[in-house]
Amino acid sequence: MAGAAAAQDLPRPLTDDDFIPFDMEQAAIGHQLFYDPILSGNQNISCAHCHHPDFGTSDGLSLGIGEGGQGLGPDRTPGSGADKIRKRIPRNSPGLWNLGAKDIHTVFHDGRLSISDVYGNGFNSPAQEWLPKGLNSILAAQALFPLTSQFEMAGNVAENQVTGAVHDRIDKGWPILAKRVRTDPRYGAAFVAAFDEVETTEDITITQIANALAAFMALEWRSTDSPFDQYLAGDSSALTPQQQEGMNLFFGDAECASCHSGPLLSDQKFHALGLPPFGPGKTRQWDPYARDVGRVGESNRLEDAYRFRTPMLRNVSKTAPYGHNGAFPDLEGIIRHHLNPRESLAAWTPDMAALPKVPWLEKVDFIVWEDSREMDRQRHKIDVAPQELTDEQIADLVAFMDALTGTTIDRPKFGVPAGFQP
């Protein structure tokens, strides 16, 4: 009966029609830009430092080390001297799989970027009316914001022209970056050849740069050939018996699909799960201390406090650690947390977080736990009801998560450029 119920509720397979068509020539430019520190304020970090294929297009850390850090993945260090980091990245670096899908309308953990006409440019975003027009997708819009973030790529105020301009207004740093790119001999002629609206290098703006990045990410990290996808397409032998048991639980009694629904395995909505808090938080303007209030920071609706966007799940076994802040190191841990968030929160210990040592930030890392009222608010804002599953059932769910891994993700269209320097 469980198998029959699950089969009824399975999503339809993903097809080419589910994805925005992108230009390969533009993607080739985006490929080079993605791995090039030219888009950072101090030219010392690239997109790939926080979204690298070796770590499932994430970085293997709970909270990333951005501008000023050195190295890659879990081995990344926080730098030293005047260049050392001043803050950890407040949230976990999300994977980039299938972000070229047409149905995606909301991105970021708190949904602060969404498709909307509220500002007349197609998006509701932190740039409001200052977001450039002509972007080819929400993915292109998303690519713009790490470039303006002080701790991700822009750098600290007074360190470079970009971050100084962004401090004045969010859109003022983008023309500086665009000038860098169009005057670089590696890029100018390529943009002229790839974009119809670009007749000379002087026509290159941040719009074409963002569109090239989007084309690359969408084509490089489309993943629709996992064993689960093959099963949906009609191959009943694609899943092992254990994976089928996990699938039946996922779409049946475990109720995972109540949030991880549809072909992309996400409802693109926001839910409070009571994840263990730590790090600098994503504070609102008047927050007096480090905390992360989630969706309410964007919506200003109190009922959205501590809610975060449901992630998509293709290749999830490659993107550890898990949660909006990477609180759990493995899939079993995050699944058990979903089953009983309050019990899991009480049992969680700081050593479970993948946080490279940063001595000058240690006092901040777990300071939120010293605020009993804030912790009490978070414990009491949980949107999921406790469930009981056996250890065997949890193992079945983990096996199904493994079945969401694409069979060709180790053969990307472009790959890591030979000259990339971590």
Task: Summarize the helices and strands and which ones pair or pack.
Elements: H1 2-9, H2 24-34, E1 106-107, E2 113-115, E3 123-124, H3 138-144, H4 150-154, H5 161-168, H6 174-182, H7 188-194, H8 206-220, H9 227-232, H10 241-250, E4 270-271, H11 296-299, E5 308-309, H12 331-339, H13 341-347, H14 362-365, H15 372-379, H16 391-402
Antiparallel strand pairs: 1-2, 2-3, 4-5
Helix pairs in contact: 1-10, 2-8, 3-8, 10-16, 12-13, 12-16
What is this structure, in a nutshell?
By secondary structure, the chain is mainly alpha-helical.
Multimeric state of these chains?
single chain
Shape: globular
* Number of contiguous helices: 16
First-last Cα distance: 51 Å
Largest sheet: 3 strands, antiparallel
Q: What is the ordering of alpha helices and beta strands?
A: HHEEEHHHHHHHHEHEHHHHH
> How many distinct beta strands?
5
Physical arrangement of strands within the biggest beta sheet: 1-2-3
Q: Which band does the percent of strand residues land in?
A: under 5%
* Gyration radius, in Å: 21 Å
Give the helix/strand class.
mainly alpha
Q: Can you tell me about this structure?
A:
This protein has 422 residues and is an all-alpha fold. It contains 16 helices and 5 strands. It has helices at residues 2-9, 24-34, 138-144, 150-154, 161-168, 174-182, 188-194, 206-220, 227-232, 241-250, 296-299, 331-339, 341-347, 362-365, 372-379, 391-402; strands spanning 106-107, 113-115, 123-124, 270-271, 308-309. Strand 1 and strand 2 form a beta hairpin. The longest helix is centred in the middle third of the chain and has 15 residues, at 206-220. The termini are far apart. 48% of the residues are buried.
